[in-house]
Amino acid sequence: MKKENEKGRKKSAGREIAEWVLTILAAVMIALVIRSFVFEPVRVEGDSMNGTLTDGEIMLVTKYDYASVWLSFPWQSDEEKEAAARVTTGGEPSRFDVVICHYPGRGDTKFVKRVVGLPGDTVQLTEGYLYVNGEKYDEPYIADEYRTAWKSDGYSFGPATVPEGCYFVMGDHRNNSNDSRYVGAIERSCIIGHVRRVLLPFGNARTIE
Known about the structure:
- This protein is 22% helix and 32% strand.
- The N and C termini lie far apart (71 Å).
- By secondary structure, it is of the alpha+beta class.
- It has 3 helices and 14 strands.
- Strands 1, 2, 5, 6, 11, 12, 13 and 14 form an 8-stranded antiparallel beta sheet that branches. It has a 4-stranded antiparallel beta sheet with strand order 9-8-7-10, with no helix packed on it.
- Strand 7 and strand 8 form a beta hairpin.
């Protein structure tokens, strides 16, 4: 009887461990799905979106409207990450959406930028002002002091036509942003989420438009 009780306890302990392992795995899988296809908190790094976003703020990035998931591992090289399969879901970004994206040659490093050019658009920057298909946009979210150039050709740019399947992105701090003026238009699969709100710090919480 004693041996049977010991076997029963061992089986119960083994079953309990297995249940805990399965629970943890299920929780990890659910968290990955939510992060990949529903929403993800992302920290702002750098000053390229000053006036709209500030270095160190935590953003809420939604994935349910549009997303792209790169099926790679953190330890892989940039080349391996960029060569990995991608799952692109949802619709298409709209003009002036603030997005999280990747750049060619930078692996899965995240950048936050604003979509200013859609596939087929002609984009031009003249004296710091944006023209799309010949129409001038004042962009009230950009401070006048952020319109000047940090590179000799940044104050004016183009005209350039955005290829099909690609998007032209720029930072709101135009004189301190490495963006499509220098890296070119980016493919749809490089846009991984839509910035909706600032979550932290609480005193700066706000909707992003």
